[in-house]
Amino acid sequence: MNPRQIAIALWTLVLKEIKRFTRIWPQTLLPPSITMTMYFIIFGNLIGSRIGEMDGYTYMDFIVPGLIMMAVITNSYSNVASSFFSNKFQRSVEEMMVSPMPNWVILAGFVLGGMTRGLGVGVIVTLVSLFFTRLSVAHPLLTVLVVVLTAALFAIGGFINALLGKKFDDISIVPTFILTPLTYLGGVFYSISLLPDLWQGVSMLNPILYMVNVFRYGFLGVSDIPVGWALAAILAFIVVLFGIALWMLEHGKGIRS
Amino acid sequence: MAEPALSIRGLTKVYGNGFQALKGIDLDVAEGDFFALLGPNGAGKSTTLGVVCSLVQKSAGRVSIFGIDIDRDFARAKYHLGVVPQEFNFNQFEKVLDIVLAQAGYYGMSRREALPRAEQLLRDLSLWDKRNGSARMLSGGMKRRLMIARALMHRPKLLILDEPTAGVDIELRRSMWEYMRRINREEGTTIILTTHYLEEAESLCRNVAIINHGEIIRSTSVRELLTELDTETFLLDLAHPVEAAPEVEGFEVSRVEPSQLAVVVHRGQRLNDVFSALGEQGIQVVSMRNRANRLEEMFVSMVEGDQGAIDRHEEVRA
Fold it and tell me: Where, residue-wise, is CATH 3.40.50.300 in chain B?
C-alpha cells in the first residue's frame, strides 16, 4: 500500500471505532461521566471537606487529576478490549485480515480509536469537575503529553487482552482484578507519603502511580516521584507493549488457526 | 503463458492438535475460470481457501495469486483477492453501506471512489434500499449478498466463494448464480467456489477439483468428469400405480413408490429401451428426472471406498 492508501485505511478504522462508541454512547460515554460525578460529590465535596488538605491542596483539587486519569485509563483499555474482541467473536476481524492493510495499521487504528474514547471521556470528566472546583493547569504541555501517552499505553494493553481472550469473561478479568485495584492504589485518592515506608516501596512498583503523579504534576505542580523517570517509564512500556502486540498480530496469535 | 489465477504447490497444514488437514496438495486455477473445489465435510476445502485468504497459516508449501508468491508479497496478492466466507463475518450492528465502504477503505479506496462502486454493487444485488439499515435486520439471503458486494468492492480479479448459497432459497440461489456467471463472463473475474450443492457446481463451473482427506483426488473439467460417469439413476413418474417393479431386460428397475420407479442406466445403455419395454407392459411414463445430480453421482463414486463414504454422501446431497 502506498502512503495515501495507508492513511485511508487507518482513517477508516479510526472512524469506524469512533462511530462504534458514539453509537452506543449510553454504554460508553455516559456511565463514566455519572460515576465520576458521584466521586466528585461524595469524595470531593462531602468527605473531602472533612479530610482537609493533601500535599498542600484541597482534597477536591488533589483528586481531580487522578479521577480524570482513572477515566482515561479505564476507557482506553476497555474500548479496545471489547471492540477488538467483538470483531474476533463476530469474525469481522477477517475483513481486515484478508485486506492488504499492514498489521501495524490494524493495531494503530484500534489504539487510536481507544485513545479517542479515553481522551473523550477524560474531557467530559474534566468539564464535570469544573462544576466542583476551579481547575488550574501548571504545565499544560506535560499534562496533555502524559494523558495522551497513558491513553495509548492502555489502549495497546486492551488490544493484547482482546487478542489473548477466548471468551467475553477474559476481557473483563484484567480491568476488574488488575486495572481497578492498581488504579485505586495508584495514588488517585491519597498521597503515597501517607503510607508507611514499606507500602510506599510497594506502591512504587505500580505503574499507574507514575502516570497519576505526572498528570497531577501537570495540573498542580506537585508529584511524589520524579517526572522524567515517570515519562521514560511510560514511553518504554508503550514501545514494549506495541512490539508485543504487533508480534502477536504478525504471528496470528489468537486470530489465525 | 499467462500466470494462473491461483497456483498451489505442496500445500500442507498440520493443526496444533496434530491433525493433518492438507497433505501436500497441488492445484492450478486458470485466469477467467469458474472453478469448483468439492469435497466432503472436513476434506480440507475451507483450510485450503483459508490459507489462500491468510485466515489459516500454512505449515508448508507455496501459494501464488496471479504469480505473486504470498510469502513474498501477500499484501500485493491480496489486492487481487475477494473473499466470501461460509459464515457471516461482518459486524451485525453496522449499517449495510458502512460495511461495504469500510471494506473499500481497508484496500485504500477513498470514500469518493468507493461510494459509486458501493451503490452499483448494492443495486446489482438488490440491497440499495437496505443501505441505511443495520445488517442484523437483513434476511439470510441478503446477508450472503452483502458479503458478495463487500468482496467485490475493490474489483478483485479472483473471487473465492465458500458455500455462497448455503441456506438460500431456490429463487434467490438462481439469481445469485446468474450474477456470478455475469461477473465471470463480463468482467473476467476468476471464481473459485466450494459448495455442497453439486447441481450448483455442474451448472456454473467449467473445472473442478475433488479433495478428500486433505488430498486432491481429481482435478479436471466438469465435462470430462461427467463423461466418466458410468451409472446414472433415473426416477420415472408413472401415469398409474404399479403393484411391483416391472422386469426390463438389461436394466435394474425398482419401485420407489406405487407411481414411481427407479431405473439404473449404465454407460452405453439407451433410455429408449426402457420406455419401449415399459410401454409394451402398458406402463406410461409421465415425467422423468435424475435421482441425484450427475456430478453428485460421480462425486460419490469417487469418494466411495473410503470409510464413512455413505455418511458423507448424505451430507453432500442437496
Answer: 6-226
Per-residue pLDDT for B310 more than 50? Answer: no
Write down the mean pLDDT value for chain A: 90
Lowest mean pLDDT among A139-143, B61-65, B87-91, B230-234: B230-234
Strands, DSSP E only, in chain A? 53-54, 57-58
Give the pLDDT of residue B312. Answer: 41
What pLDDT band is residue B35 in, cutting at 50, 70 and 90?
A: very high
d(Cα A80, Cα A156) in Å, to the nearest integer?
A: 8
A6 contact residues in B (CB cutoff 8 A): 108
CA dihedral A137, A139, A140, A146 (to 10 degrees): -110
pLDDT in tens, B130-153: 999 999 999 888 899 999 999 999
Beta-carbon separation of A5 and B103 below 8 A: no
DSSP for A3-66, written as a single string:
HHHHHHHHHHHHHHHHHHHHHTHHHHTHHHHHHHHHHIIIIIIIIHHHH-EETTEEHHHHHHHH
Distance CA A94, CA B215 (A): 26
Q: What is the pLDDT of residue B229?
A: 67
Question: Does residue B313 carry a pLDDT above 50?
Answer: no
Q: pTM higher than 0.90, yes or no?
A: no
CA-based nearest distance A15→chain B, Å: 9
Q: Which amino acid is located at B139 in the chain?
A: S
In A, which residues are within 8 Å of B50 by CB distance? 257
- Residue B38, beta-bridge partner list: B210
A146 within domain boundaries: yes
Chain B hits for A12, CB-CB cut-off 8 Å, are 101-102, 105-106
- Give how far the C-alpha of residue A6 lies from the chain's centroid of Cα atoms, to the nearest Å: 26
Domain span(s) for CATH 3.30.70.1560 in chain B:
229-294
| Contact partners, residue B157, CB within 8 Å, separation at least 6 | B5, B31, B66, B80, B188, B189, B190
Contact list in A for residue B108 (CB cut-off 8 A) is 1-2, 4-6, 8-9, 100
**What homologous superfamily does CATH list for B229-294?**
Alpha-L RNA-binding motif (3.30.70.1560)
**Confidence check: pLDDT of A209 > 70:** yes
Interface confidence, given as ipTM, is: 0.87
Is there a domain that residue A67 lies in?
yes
Q: Cα–Cα distance between B31 and B33 in angstroms, integer?
A: 6
Selecting from 3.40.50.300, 3.30.310.10, 3.30.530.20, 3.90.650.10, what CATH number does the domain B6-226 have?
3.40.50.300
Q: Which pLDDT value is given to residue A221?
A: 83
Place of cell 472453478: B35
Q: Which residue's C-alpha cell is 496469535? A: A253
Looking at the domain assignment, is residue A9 inside a domain? yes
CA-to-CA dists, residue B216 to B63, B220, B248, angstroms: 15, 11, 39
Instruction: From A148, A118, A153, select the one nearest A236 (Cα to Cα).
Output: A153
Q: Which of B70, B103, B106, B159 to mutate to test the interface with A (most CBs of A within 10 A)?
A: B106
Per the structure, how many domains does chain A have? Answer: 1
Domain extent at residue A225:
3-250
pLDDT over threshold 90, residue B177: no
Residue A255 resides in a domain: no
